[in-house]
Amino acid sequence: MEGGGTQGIQFIIQIVLARLLLPEQFGTIAIVMVFIHVAQVFVQSGFGTALIQKKNVDEEDFSSIFYLSLMIAAVLYSLIFLISPAIASFYSMPVLIPVLRILSLILFTGAFNSIQYSFVSRNLQFKKLFKSSLGAMFISGVLGVAAAYNGLGIWALVIQQLTNQISISVIMWFTIEWRPKLVFSLAKVKDLFTFGWKLLASSLLNVFYLEIRTLFIGRLYSSSALGFYNRGEQFPKLIVNNINGSIDAVMLPTLSALQDDRKRAKEMMRRSIVTSSFLIFPMMIGLAVVAEPLVILILTDKWIPAVPFLQMFSISYALMPIHTANLQAINAMGRSDIFLKLEVIKKLIGLTILAVSLPFGVYAIAMVQVLSGIISTFINAYPNKQILNYSYKEQLTDIMPSFYISMIMGSIVYSMNYLNIAEWQILVIQVFAGTVIYIGLAKIFKNESYGYLLETVRQLILEKRKASV
Predict the structure, then answer these.
(1) HSE-up (13 A, CA, CB side) for residue 382
(2) How far apart are CA 8 and CA 10, in angstroms?
(3) Same structural domain for residues 347 and 317?
(4) Which of helix, strand or coil describes residue 423?
(5) Which sign, positive or negative, has the C-alpha torsion 324, 327, 331, 332?
(6) Domain range for residue 177?
(7) Does residue 191 sit in the same domain as residue 283?
(8) With 80 as the cut, is the pLDDT of residue 386 above it?
(9) Distance CA 321, CA 36 (A)
(10) Which stretches are transmembrane (predicted)?
C-alpha cells in the first residue's frame, strides 16, 4: 500500500508534466540523464549492496564507504562539467551545457543517499524510506509542475529531479539514525571492494546497455522521437519499479540472512516470483491493451506516437520480477562473480541484436529490447538451478497460472477498444472490467497467489482490530 501511494503521486506528476511540456524537452533531458546515470553507477553501486550483504558491518564500514562515495562524486562531477561542451556539440544542443552542469549536482546527494539506503535495508526500516520518498516526491512535484506551468520548459524537469534528490537526503537525515563518523579505513574499503567491484562492473554494464539506446536515438533520429520512446517506457517502468522495488529491497537482506539455509532461501525466492508475477502480469498486459485510449485521455493527442512504445515496454517490464528474484538470490548467496558473468553474456547478446536493429528505426529498437528481455530471463534463471535447486520448469510452473489468466483478461479488455463511445468511457469500462475479470478468474482457478494475498490481508485486518481493542 505504501509503494502504491508513492507510485500514484509520481504517476500524477509525470502526467501533468507531460501535458505541460513538449516531447522534445523530455528527449533532451533523457540524453542528459544517460551521463548522470553512468556516473551514479560509480557513486552508488556495488559498495551499497556490499554493505547490505556483508554479515557483520560496523560504523567504520558505513563511514568509510560514505567518504569514498563523496570523493568519487566530486571527481565525476568535475569531469562532466569539463566535457559538457563537447557533449552539447555532438548532439547540436547548446542547452545541454548548463543542464548537465546543474543536474549533475545530484551525484553528491546520491553519494549520501546510497549509504542511507543501505542502512535502511540492512535494518529493515522501510517505512522511514517510504516517508522520505513520499515527502520528497511531493515537494519536487509541486516545484516541477509550477515551473512547467510558468513556461520554464526543460528547466521544470531539472528542478523536479534536483529537488527530489535533495529533499530525500534532507528528510532522511532527520528520520534515520545513521550519521557519518570521522573515520576512514582503507582495509574496510578493500574488504567491501572484494564483493562490490563485481556488482559495480555489472551495474556499469547494465546502465551502459540500457542507456546506449537513448544515445543512438538522440543522435541518429530526433529529440522528439526520443521523447516518445522515453515516455512510452516510463509508465510501465514506474509501475513495475515501485512494486518490484519494494520486494527487491526486502529480498536481498532477507535472503542474505538465509545464506546457510538454501531450502528456506528457495522458498522465499519462489514466493517473491509467484506473488510479484500475480500482481505485475495483469497490470502490464492491461496497460498494453488500453494504451491508446489511456495516452489520448491523460497525455493528449500530441503523445499518440508513444502508444506502440508503451505497449512494447509493458510486455518487457512484465518479466522484471523474474529477473529481480533470480539476480537477488545470486547476490544474496555471495556469488557476485556469477552475477557479473551473466551481465556480460546478456549485454553481448543484447548489443548484437541492437546493432542489427539500428538502421530500421526507433520502433525496431524497442522491439529488440523486448526480445532481449525474454532471452535475459532464461539466462538469469540458469544459475539458480544449481545454487538453489530452482529449475526452469519450476519457475515456469510458478508464473504460468498468472500469465494465462492475465492473457484471457487482456484479450477481453482489448476488444472493448472498438466500442463506439468516448475515450474516457472506454478506459473506465476497461479498467473496471479488467479488474473484475482478473480477480474472478483467479478465484475460479484457485490461483495460489490470490489465496496467499487474501489471507495476508485478512491477517492484517485482524491484527489491526486486536491492536485497536
Answers:
(1) 13
(2) 6
(3) yes
(4) helix
(5) positive
(6) 1-221
(7) no
(8) yes
(9) 26
(10) 29-52, 64-83, 95-117, 129-148, 278-300, 306-327, 348-379, 399-419, 426-445
Rounded to two decimals, the pTM is 0.75
Q: Where are the alpha helices (DSSP H) in 123-153?
A: 126-149
| Residue at a domain's end among 176, 206, 221 | 221
* Least confident range of 73-87, 118-132, 285-299: 118-132
Taking alpha carbons only, the member of 340, 321, 329 closest to residue 253 is: 329
C-alpha distances in Å from residue 147, one per residue of 140, 302, 458 = 10, 21, 44
Main-chain phi, psi angles of 433, to 5 degrees: -65, -40
Q: Mind listing the pLDDT tens digit for each residue in 300-348?
A: 889 999 999 999 999 888 888 788 888 878 877 777 778 778 888 888 8
Let me know: does 33 contact 230? Beta carbons within 8 Å.
no
Chain mean pLDDT for the chain: 83
How far apart (Å, rounded) are the C-alpha atoms in residues 217 and 223? 8
Domain boundary among 221, 248, 276: 221
| 258 in the same domain as 343 | yes
* pLDDT beyond 90 at 122: no
- pLDDT at res. 2: 47
Which residue stretches of 104-222 are H helix? 106-122, 126-149, 154-175, 186-220
- HEC string of 274-312? HHHHHHHHHHHHHHHHCHHHHHHHHHCHHHHHHHHHHHH
pLDDT tens digits, 233-246: 888 888 887 776 66
Other residues' Cβ atoms within 10 Å of the Cβ of residue 458 = 10
Rg, the chain, Cα only? 22
